[in-house]
Design goal:
With 256 residues, this protein is α+β, with helices and mostly antiparallel strands. The protein has six helices and 15 strands. It has helices at residues 22-28, 34-42, 135-142, 162-169, 205-212, 244-255; strands at residues 20-21, 46-48, 51-52, 59-60, 67-69, 72-73, 81-86, 116-117, 126-132, 150-156, 184-187, 193-198, 217-225, 228-229, 239-241. The structure holds uracil.
């Protein structure tokens, strides 16, 4: 943790292919704000190639310069991977003329123009969403043949019978004729809540599956996406960078 700005200094990300101002690099990597970067440089907390940096406007080369912030080396990474706990009322899009988007929840300097949500959650669905600028990995994770498992905590308006749960776990025919892949449903004692696991992601899929058994979703929260589990310490609307282990697990998943 940096004493100056309170930002955890163990994951830093860079999106540049050209030289960049030192203060901009510190802010865009999510290390600290641009003004905190200027302050850290003034208070001699930033080094470039082992030498204390004097000027915020000095140009640094991400490929060749070693930059350290409060004694911690910035690790250059080609892509950003962010876990966001999506709140209600926010749309899974990069921009929207009317509603707040998941990208709007990231501060300037963390968000970049190439970042997008990896998969969609409905406006009133909560929980885990992955934001990245690694289009190739996202494409592989979202490909229908990848069958990436996603778990959702849900509540329904009416109890779900054993018979309907069995239909859910076999195949359901949705109102447009689409036949779902087998899903898993784990019911709580009240039979009106539990966990649903999908290995596909059609539009409004869980809502439409519940409608197909004459029921209705009243609460939906995604709690896992492939190898990622929603970080319980993230409040709604909060985000964090993925850890190295989480990124490696995602990359493995994208290859399977
Ligand atoms: N199924 C839905 O109906 N909505 C979501 O947001 C995700 C899965």
């Amino acid at each position: 943790m940096c004493f100056d700005c309170g930002v955890r200094a163990d994951h830093f990300y860079v999106f540049f292919e050209v030289d960049v101002r030192l203060d901009k690099l510190l802010s865009i990597t999510g290390t600290c704000s641009r003004s905190d970067a200027k302050r850290a440089i003034r208070t001699k907390n930033v080094t470039v190639n082992g030498i204390v940096a004097k000027n915020a406007d000095m140009q640094v080369d991400e490929n060749n310069d070693d930059v350290s912030y409060c004694g911690k080396k910035i690790v250059y990474r080609q892509y950003s991977y962010i876990m966001l706990n999506k709140p209600e009322g926010v749309v899974s899009a990069t921009e929207d003329g009317r509603d707040v988007t998941v990208l709007d929840l990231l501060p300037d300097g963390v968000r970049n123009d190439r970042m997008f949500p990896c998969g969609r959650l409905d406006k009133n669905t909560l929980g885990l969403i992955l934001l990245t600028d690694n289009g190739d990995l996202a494409h592989r994770l979202l490909a229908p043949k990848s069958h990436v498992a996603k778990k959702y905590r849900f509540c329904s308006r009416f109890p779900i019978s054993d018979e309907d749960a069995a239909r859910f776990e076999e195949r359901l025919v949705l109102e447009d004729g689409y036949v779902t892949l087998p899903a898993k449903i784990e019911l709580d004692e009240d039979r009106m809540s539990g966990i649903i696991t999908l290995v596909e992601g059609k539009y409004h899929q869980i809502k439409r599956m519940l409608e197909a058994i004459d029921n209705k979703i009243t609460y939906l929260e995604r709690i896992t996406f492939g190898p990622l589990t929603l970080d319980a310490s993230l409040a709604r609307g909060e985000w964090r960078y993925l850890s190295e282990d989480e990124i490696a697990a995602l990359e493995r998943h994208g290859k399977e």
